[in-house]
Every structure is written in structure tokens, then in C-alpha cells.
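Archive transcription. Copying these from loose printouts into the bound notebook so they stop getting lost. Printout 1 of 2:
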Amino acid sequence: MRKVPAIIDCVDGDLARILYKESRLIDTATNRDFSLLVVLLALIGKLDLFLWMAGIGVHLFWITALFSQWRDTRGAPAISEKSA
């Protein structure tokens, strides 16, 4: 069974669905289980498509990760020097 991030338990409605879908997308994109795709594309002679997909996908991933981090830290309180 897949573990749901704790933040999703604290949120209701549409936002929880969006956070869950985003979490699933990031988990899927970071598992690096794309070897079957490489083999399949090699068998049909289209391995160059993998390079294009990887080249575009890596930029989509870092932009999504950056936006996610920015959104998560935007509402977080700043750490004061007294508590550090």
C-alpha cells in the first residue's frame, strides 16, 4: 500500500486531490524505472525519441519541483535567530 504524505491528511477537497496527484507524479518520475521504455524504443528503432523525451522531461521535472518547493515554503514561517 502506498503511503500518503502527511500534508495531504490535513487538507480537504480539491487541494488534497491536487497534492495527491502531484505527489504521485513526482514519485513516478523519480523512480527511474524507464528501462522498459528504452528497450521498447530500441526494438522499434526509435531510440532517438528517448533522448528527446528525456531532454524535455528533465526540464519539466525541475520546473515542477521548483514550483512545488516554492509553494510549500511560501506559507512556512521564517526561522528566527532566537530559535536557531
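Printout 2 of 2:
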Amino acid sequence: MIAEIEQEIARLNLAKAALVTASTGGASTKSKPGRPAKVAAVDSGATKAPKTKKRTMSAAARKKIAAAQKARWAKLRAEKMTKK
């Protein structure tokens, strides 16, 4: 009687293992490829840095940078034309 129960338990454990493997795509103990997921840290509030204000650029500064970049491109184009 006990031997039959142990055989039944062994059979059920094999069936359980097959179901677990099938439901996880065959990787029950293997890790997924790629970078490991971040572990959610306990947020105590003291470890978090204060949020800094987002730095924005004025329209005049954007225009100045755009003009400088266009001048660089023009210089490169001019150098290419003189090499030909």
C-alpha cells in the first residue's frame, strides 16, 4: 500500500515538473539572457537624492548654438570643395 502511494507521488512529481517546464518555456532554473533585472530597494527616503530642477536653454542660446553648428558644416563643405 505505501509503495503504491510512493509510486503515485513520484509520478505526480514528474507530471508537475513537466508542467512547470512547459509553462516557463523550458527554462525553469535558467536565467534569461541579458542584464539582470533591478532589485526593488526599500525606499527609506534618506537615500534618495533631491530632484534637481530641469535645466532649460533660452531661445537665444539655441540660436547661437545652431548658428555655430551651421558654420562648422559650411567650413567642412568648403574644405571638401577645395580638395576636389
